[in-house]
Amino acid sequence: MTLALDTDFLVNWLIEGTPLHEEASFLVTNEVRKDGALGLVPQVLYEFVHVGTDPRRFERPFSMDEAIARARSLWDAPEVVRIVPGSMVPHRSMELLSRFSLGRKRILDTALAATLEAAGVRRLATFNGKDYQVFPFLEIVTPS
Length: 144
Description:
- About 45% of the residues lie in helices and about 10% in strands.
- The chain is an alpha/beta fold.
């Protein structure tokens, strides 16, 4: 079963020295070992490049070239399922924003949820589970 990755999870998994690196790495290793697939949405890769190169967040951030290389490598990895938003995802995202009275700071999370729903992916690895609790079609997987 595919486990989609949220940006915060991806950052903690790929950047050594982050507070939750070990937990993220352990979960990914176990998922892949169980013949599970990792699901990625392009928006998460873009956010990873943005966050992973930010010197205000990390003592040793990736250079732009390093972050791009990591993102490309991950996108092409055999254990990764590419989840691309379809043409109805914007409509569904707007519907979810309205239905759950979500504000402007929840747009990207809602778009991710709608993209996963449309692709039939029900599991999401994140350290920000509260941001996704409102979506009944998602199972939040938080490493411990």
